[in-house]
Write a structure and sequence with these properties.
By secondary structure, this protein is an alpha/beta fold. It has helices at 5-12, 26-34, 42-53, 56-61, 70-73, 83-89, 120-129, 150-169, 188-208, 235-249, 266-279, 292-302, 309-326, 333-339; strands spanning 18-21, 63-68, 93-97, 102-104, 112-114, 134-141, 173-180, 217-218, 256-259, 285-290. It has 14 helices and 10 strands. An 8-stranded parallel beta sheet has the order 8-7-6-3-2-1-10-9. A two-stranded antiparallel ribbon has the order 4-5. Bound molecules: 1,6-di-O-phosphono-beta-D-fructofuranose. Keywords: Glycolysis, Lyase.
Length: 340
């Protein structure tokens, strides 16, 4: 079959599968390694990620694609096999994070703009040659008393659309990620309003910049209460509000929505996704592109020790399987207990 943007996007959201976000930037992976007392060296990062990509059952059955960081897409496994080849051998698709991070937005205290557009066309050509068939760009939207501003929303939507069009021109499917951050005391209703405004601006910009929606994937936050909010929305409420928000804003031509976990607990992220798929009634596939919610358990089980690799791989395979079930609404809480 000839590979098209549409066929790649469809494969990324095949039933039972989702994306492993293993694209932590150097600063973020250091934070993760600090939490288990492991030094963030190039070799340790390689060992850790190689361990994940060699978890055969997870990679073959539940992981449709892996988002890599620039270092990782060029890295070789201990035995000299490129890590990209390990991913492909498992039938999974290599992807690449291309943004250069969220920086302070000039003239807008507390707000961010994602950088990385300069030279992006050439970088895409190189990443394509290295095997990437999809990419990711993350915009960060903070909620505060007077933020986000329209300025911040529009600037980030514009950059996401510029990135998306450049990706498609290189034969690469863009994951567009406008993350409304969970931190703060705001309610789920406020998260709904901000996410709705962001998604409206995003799809306006994608239309204006002639992006083919069938060849894109959306990576959003769910509609959740701020971490400091005294009343936390329950599983059903999160699922219902999230579906409602997306029905208002995301065109039916978009093949799939893959959620970020954003600091939710592993089980919450799985329960919310499963509930949405149980409720159903929407035109897109709903799946996952979790970083922390897939990796927290294997990271802890590994602890930087070779003898812990089997236990860490088992922990990763378990979370991948639980989230795979959530993509079809078949996850149940007692499946977690039986594994424990
Ligand atoms: O700040 P960084 O290093 O770019 O990483 C942000 C992380 O957020 C994500 O977009 C989502 O990760 P979570 O599921 O952990 O929220 C990852 O793809 C990425 O690794």
């Amino acid at each position: 079959m000839t590979e098209t943007l549409e066929s790649i996007a469809q494969a990324m959201v095949a039933p039972g599968k989702g994306i492993l976000a293993a694209d932590e930037s150097t600063g973020t992976i250091k934070k993760r390694f600090d939490s288990i007392g492991v030094e963030s060296t190039e070799d340790n990062r390689r060992d850790y990620r190689e361990m994940l990509f060699r978890t055969e059952s997870a990679m073959k059955e539940n992981i449709s694609g892996v988002i890599l960081y620039d270092e990782t897409i060029r890295q070789k496994a201990k035995d000299g096999t490129p890590l990209v080849d390990l991913i492909k051998a498992a039938g999974s698709i290599p992807g690449i994070k291309v943004d250069a991070g969220a920086k302070d937005l000039t003239g807008a205290p507390g707000e961010k703009i994602t950088e990385g557009l300069d030279g992006l066309g050439q970088r895409f050509a190189e990443y394509y040659d290295l095997g990437a068939r999809f990419a990711k760009w993350r915009a960060v939207i903070n909620i505060g008393e007077d933020i986000p501003s329209t300025y911040c929303i529009n600037a980030n939507a514009h950059a996401l659309a510029r990135y998306a069009k450049l990706a498609q021109a290189a034969g690469i499917v863009p994951i567009v990620e406008p993350e409304v951050i969970m931190d703060g005391g705001h309610t789920a209703e406020r998260c709904f309003d901000v996410t709705e405004a962001m998604l409206n601006a995003l799809y306006d910009a994608l239309y204006e910049q002639r992006v083919l929606l069938e060849g894109t994937i959306l990576k959003p936050n769910m509609i959740v209460s701020g971490t400091e909010c005294p009343t936390q929305a329950g599983v059903e409420q999160v699922a219902e509000m999230t579906i409602k928000c997306f029905k208002r804003t995301v065109p039916a031509a978009v093949p799939g929505i893959v959620f970020l976990s954003g600091g939710q607990s592993d089980e919450d992220a799985t329960a919310h996704l499963s509930m949405m798929n149980q409720i159903g009634g929407f035109p897109w596939k709903m799946s996952f592109s979790y970083g922390r919610a897939l990796q927290a358990a294997p990271l802890k089980a590994w602890g930087g020790k070779a003898e812990n690799v089997p236990a860490a791989q088992a922990a990763f395979a378990h979370r991948a399987r639980m989230n795979g079930l959530a993509t079809t609404g078949e996850w149940k809480a007692d499946l977690e207990k039986s594994a424990a």
